[in-house]
Amino acid sequence: MNENIVKRNEKLAQKVIKGLESRNMNGFYAASKEEALQMALKFIPEGSTVTMGGGMSVREIGLFDALKKGNYQFIDRDEYADRREAMLLAYDADIYLASANAMTEDGVMVNIDGGANRVSALAYGPKVVLMIVGMNKICDDVDGAMKRARNVAAPINAQRFGLDTPCSKTGACMNCKSPDTICCQFLITRYSKEKDRINVILVNDDLGF
């Protein structure tokens, strides 16, 4: 990554972290994927019950593989015949892993979901939420974050899952009501009632969509 981009991201990350702290959430900065992985593992005691949604960012830093191989009670929904059972177990997990579709410079998170298992777990349930967020997802404000979530993250995910939505064909949100739409539930996280529940590791890399 270009040295000037690295410096810019370092400065911007500190602004985001201050914003998160003002909203009763914790923010941390990792200079690389490798540093982010080590930082994340320190949050997760061995023996903990851990689960996640589809989080590409979690996989991209190597955390998914580390948990599968380590001494953790990892709930992998892909290993369950009944995925609903796995998703319901998430609400009582010690640690829930996720990313954000977008985040503002002052620490507000925006997430869009189809089945709502991810956004509902972020809002309530798991004892601790650990977010892995690439600096590519930082936006000026909530409007910008919403636009990113709807016009970048959603179309790419629709294409990734092979869904028959207008955005998978056009690459941009068409505000559809397609049966395949994944823009069913919108969650804006602007404050956490529980201190230390939501923790965000900002990674100086392009992660996820």
Keywords:
alpha/beta, about 210 residues, four-stranded mixed beta sheet, Rossmann fold, six-stranded parallel beta sheet
Give your account of this protein's structure.
The protein is built from eight helices and ten strands. The two termini are about 20 Å apart. By secondary structure, the chain is α/β, with parallel strands linked by helices. The protein has one domain: Rossmann fold. The strands form two sheets. The protein has a six-stranded parallel sheet with strand order 1-10-7-4-2-3, sandwiched between helices. A four-stranded mixed sheet has the order 8-5-6-9, with helices on both faces. A hairpin with a 4-residue loop joins strand 5 and strand 6. About 40% of the residues are buried. The chain has helices at about 5-20, 35-45, 55-60, 65-70, 85-90, 115-125, 140-160, 165-170; strands at about 25-30, 50, 75, 95-100, 100-105, 110-115, 130-135, 140, 185-190, 200-205.
